[in-house]
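User: Can you predict the 3D structure for this chain?
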Amino acid sequence: MLQEFKEFINKGNIVDLAVAVVMATAFKPIVDTVVNGVLLQVVAAIFGQPNFDTLSFDVGDTAILYGTVITATIQFFFVAIAVFFVLKTYNATKRSEETAEPVDEPTGPSEIDLLTEIRDSLANR
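Assistant: Here is the predicted structure, written as structure tokens:
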């Protein structure tokens, strides 16, 4: 059982997933700052407030806060846009690195050239 667990943990997919979760957790504050500090401020400039959390209607004694759904939807949309542009930039950078001209390394003599040189050297002795 311990061996099976060890094999399960050492699979590449599990390690890749763990790295992705850690990176996403570290990346979240950046996306949140862009969304809340920039994009939602544009919403505030247009509508007068950065969110719609106060929008509601009453049903009996209960307030239905439909504004929180609107705010969450807008935040999701902005997060999706931010992640889309980051991935688009990353993929463009990665593609340009892959298509870059390989640097020509100085090549030495071929195997045939070396054998010819050894043959000639032995013949001159």
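The helical segments are 2-10, 12-47, 66-99, 111-124. The beta strands are 57-59, 62-64.
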